[in-house]
Design brief:
This protein is α/β, with parallel strands linked by helices. It has a single domain, classed as 3-Layer(aba) Sandwich (Rossmann fold), CATH 3.40.50. A hairpin with a 5-residue loop joins strand 5 and strand 6. The chain is globular.
Amino acid sequence: MGRTAVVDYGAGNLMSVTNALKYLGEEWIITSDNGEIERSDRIILPGVGAFPAAMRFLKEKGFESVLVEQAKKKPFLGICLGMQMLFDESEEIETTAGLGLIGGRIKRVDTDLKLPHIGWNSLRFHNPSPLTEGVPEGSYVYFVHSFAAYADREEDLVASVDYGTQVTAIVGNDHVFGCQFHPEKSGEVGLTMLKNFCSI
């Protein structure tokens, strides 16, 4: 089964993520220790907050290089802000470099609808992914965000939702994955995706 490291960098929805993992019977550890991240079998990078502050914290604590290196070796899942940090850079507040694990940019959602985008939306699939095995297209998941990812490569876009415009919901490149929504708050659908991730 293996252990999942849930990275604690001071800006995460840690309890809801680990409660979901506990419910699924998975082994996990909340950690801010690079050694524990290196010893774990999988990594989850959660996140709530602003991109520049989060990336600054990752750099100051020495997480950035470790996460990039470990992402080459083991399954890695970014959730919400954690997904956005997988990309090359973000326009939130100020242009800030991300982890560069998936090519693309984070931009404010270009929609006439109210922001932040809060609530349930149905998934439209674009490319197959281990995360979505057993999840029917059209399933609803829960979002809270104002910025979204724009991937450089079409093959990295796993799923999107419609919020007055196409909004990236899931990305994937090799064994690096990201969910803009909160799987841990998305009922059975989200639990299925977390179980899928822990089975990789």
